[in-house]
Design a protein that fits this description.
By secondary structure, this protein is mainly α. The protein contains 21 helices and six strands. The protein is about 55% helix and about 5% strand.
């Protein structure tokens, strides 16, 4: 019978996990600012602005004239494509400002080298907005974020298509966050998901992203040809893409990001992590508070949270250890926490009464917690693994008496998905009785 709190972060995931992006570890603000200041394309934009000076004539579209572009390319030892990209960055970031067909230094001229750290990072972010607009690269950066690892250049198209497919599936789910860019997800234009996918010819755009420091190019150690080259988001690129996705309503957890928050914050993100990352998150959170404070925060969160959060709270309490015993003992007075607290105390060598009613309520509560994250078949497999079928049927038959808001949902899940006919039949009868009692 599932009355233990052993599992924290390795709970099976159901459909609700489709809206999550993988958790990431972000670089420090100092590292991000340093990367922004040395971004080649942004430095070229600043150099080009310095070369252009004040009252530089421009075309009707705000670009450099053909003559000036050629002269700038020769002076700065750049190609014409690089000059036009750098000029677009200079205009898009307000390093240069255009008025009456003339360009002059804008409000952000000089910020890259001499501005405050946050100003330099904001400047780089504005440059990214411009680059993404130049080549419609938003979908590509999202695909790289989703991959979470270096992707071979010859597999970029597949990564991009997979990101489109996942986002299209997500957009079809009710009550899920929608992108401001359209139903296909962050930065991806709407279109027919069954139609032809976009062309994988992304080399010019990748060069822009690399020159701005958004991506890093590497090599596949198993392949020396051009197809063996890889691309991945740089630390500053990862930070920027995560920020864009978060602004559009996506769940984008950060490793260590909940350490300064309350217990509810750390418990809420554990389902996003694998076991190793989950343990690291818990350790970071515990390191910022005394054991007694951690125990108090965990019981407070458990008393107000969902069934899944209650189970996770007492699992994290294991890391607090014996220092949590007084707090957990006080939790016996709370009807919602009493079964969890009694089991926890017993598992830690303490005496605590646990009635049959409490055990039944705890079983339903743990099952309800599993249903928050897991597919029904996984819930059925995990909830009663140690009992023979006849004992499971006997136990399930009496669950209708449990005063728990999720009892009917759990019994219905057991009746629909349990592989043993006798257990499923017992659950079906119990679910009918539970509904009749309402």
């Amino acid at each position: 019978m599932a009355t233990s709190h052993e599992s924290v972060s390795s709970r099976p995931r159901g459909a609700a996990s489709l809206t999550r992006m993988p958790p990431v570890r972000l670089a420090s603000r100092e590292e991000l600012t340093a990367a922004a200041r040395v971004a080649p394309l942004l430095r070229v934009a600043q150099d080009l602005a310095a070369w252009a000076g004040k009252d530089r004539p421009v075309t009707g579209s705000g670009d450099l004239t053909t003559t000036d572009a050629a002269e700038a390319a020769g002076t700065l030892d750049l190609s014409l494509d690089e000059i036009h990209a750098a000029w677009a960055i200079a205009i898009g970031t307000d390093i240069m400002a255009v008025e009456d067909d003339q360009a002059s230094p804008g409000e952000r001229f000089g910020v890259l080298g001499a501005g405050r750290p946050d100003d330099a990072l904001d400047l780089w972010s504005a440059a990214l907005e411009t680059v993404l607009g130049l080549e419609n690269l938003d979908g590509l950066t999202t695909a790289l974020y989703t991959a979470g690892r270096p992707v071979r250049l010859d597999a970029l198209f597949e990564a991009y298509a997979a990101a489109v497919g996942a986002m299209t599936d997500q957009a079809d789910q009710p009550n899920q966050p929608a992108s401001a860019s359209g139903p296909d997800g962050p930065g991806l234009s709407a279109g027919d998901p069954d139609g032809p996918p976009p062309s994988p010819g992304l080399e010019p755009g990748l060069e822009l992203l690399a020159d701005l420091g958004v991506v890093e190019l590497g090599a596949d150690s198993e392949d020396d040809d051009e197809g063996g080259l890889t691309v991945t988001l740089s630390p500053i690129g990862l930070w920027a893409v995560r920020d864009r996705l978060q602004q559009r309503g996506w769940r984008v957890p950060v490793l260590g990001g909940s350490a300064d928050g309350g217990a509810a914050a750390v418990l809420a993100v554990l389902a996003d992590y694998d076991a190793e990352d989950g343990e690291a998150e818990i350790a970071a959170w515990l390191a910022r508070r005394s054991p007694e404070q951690a125990a108090e925060e965990l019981t407070a969160a458990a008393s107000q949270g969902s069934p899944g959060l209650r189970g996770a709270a007492f699992a994290v309490m294991d890391r607090v250890g014996t220092a949590a015993v007084p707090t957990v003992r006080r939790a016996l007075a709370n009807p919602v926490l009493r079964p969890h607290a009694a089991v926890w105390l017993r598992e830690h060598g303490e005496e605590a009464a646990l009635s049959r009613e409490d055990s039944a309520w705890l079983l339903v509560d743990l099952g309800a917690g599993l249903l928050e994250e897991a597919a029904p078949d996984d819930v059925v497999a995990e909830l009663l693994p140690d009992l023979p079928p006849h004992a499971q049927a006997e136990l399930v038959a009496g669950l209708w008496r449990v005063e728990h808001p999720a009892v009917t949902e759990l019994l219905t899940t057991l009746s629909d998905h349990h592989p043993e006919p006798d257990v499923a039949k017992a659950a079906r009868k119990a679910a009918f009785k539970a509904r009749s009692r309402l």
